[in-house]
Amino acid sequence: MNCAEAEILIHALIDGELDAGHAREVEAHVASCAGCAGQFEAFHLMHAAMAGAALKDTAPASLHARIDAMLPPAAAGTAAAAGAGAPRSWRRPSRRSFFGGFAAGAVLSGALAASVALVVFNGDREGTIANEVVSAHIRSLQAGHLIDVESSDQHTVKPWFDGKVDVAPPVIDLTAQGFTLIGGRLDYIDGEPVAAVVYRRRKHVINLFVARRLGTEHAAAAARTVQGYNVRHWSAQGLDFWAVSDLDAQELDEFVQKISAAVPAVSRS
């Protein structure tokens, strides 16, 4: 991680908005970079000062009195008032009736907001995970981040994940079909550890993320493009698969088809 990337994420770290993987990366960079450490300390102090400051303003008693004076009198029921068109049954609302109505409206508004938020959250979770998958792919392309276990032998890569993730990811050798297995690594998506099985097609890297559940279940591969990268997501054998690469869409679809065809046989074995 460089200073420009860290500067963007420092605020999110202070506000507690980063997942575990990103938080560790920012903390590691801050620990090794004096400039970013100084920025972190300054932002942290400013955040603490704002959180502890009495920024809420209270209306003075004179304003309350002026507003009360502008309200119609409670006994506005005389003939003169009626002749002027004043409401016959108008009375000044009490604090109880005002806040009771406000509370009822707030409850209804809250329920509507919650239902809308639930729909939006469910509909957007897939997009959020897709963005995280692409971010993890981009991070992996940095020097020294792509592979934890380097091997083209599936019997070496697959056992390496034992005890590191809660799934046994299928590791499939597709070298003969033009997709070379080059290794695997531990990564983090949505704050959870996931297996990343890494392939290469010519000069293009393909990250295949495997987890128990990351997004909505898809029997067939769902396709999307995020930040110029092609992303495919599908589910099989109780696992979620996310493939991401700058490989063209047709070739990535070919990769997905070959992996999907081989997964049931690997799972049975």
Order of helices and strands: HHHHHHEHEEEEEEH
Please identify which CATH superfamily of the largest domain we are dealing with: MucB/RseB, C-terminal domain
Detail the poorly predicted runs.
75-90, 115-123
Overall pLDDT level: 80
| Strand-pairing-aware structural class | alpha+beta
CATH class of the largest domain: Alpha Beta
Whole-number tally of structural domains: 2
Q: How many H/I helices? A: 8
CATH architecture name of the largest domain? 2-Layer Sandwich
Strand content of the residues, in percent?
15-25%
Helix content: 40-55%
Largest sheet: 7 strands, antiparallel
Strand order of the largest sheet: 1-2-3-4-7-6-5
- Seen as an oligomer or otherwise, the chain set is single chain
Count the beta strands: 7
**What is the 3D form?**
elongated
Write down the Rg.
Answer: 29 Å
* First and last CA, distance: 40 Å
CATH fold-level assignment of the largest domain: Phosphorylase Kinase, domain 1
What does this structure look like?
A 7-stranded antiparallel beta sheet has the order 1-2-3-4-7-6-5. It has helices at 3-14, 20-32, 34-52, 61-70, 79-83, 95-140, 154-160, 249-268, and strands at residues 149-150, 180-189, 192-201, 204-211, 222-226, 229-236, 239-245. 23% of the residues are buried. It is α+β, with helices and mostly antiparallel strands and 269 residues long. The chain has 8 helices and 7 strands. The longest helix is centred in the middle third of the chain and has 46 residues, at 95-140. The chain starts with a helix and ends with a helix. The protein is elongated, with a radius of gyration of 29 Å.
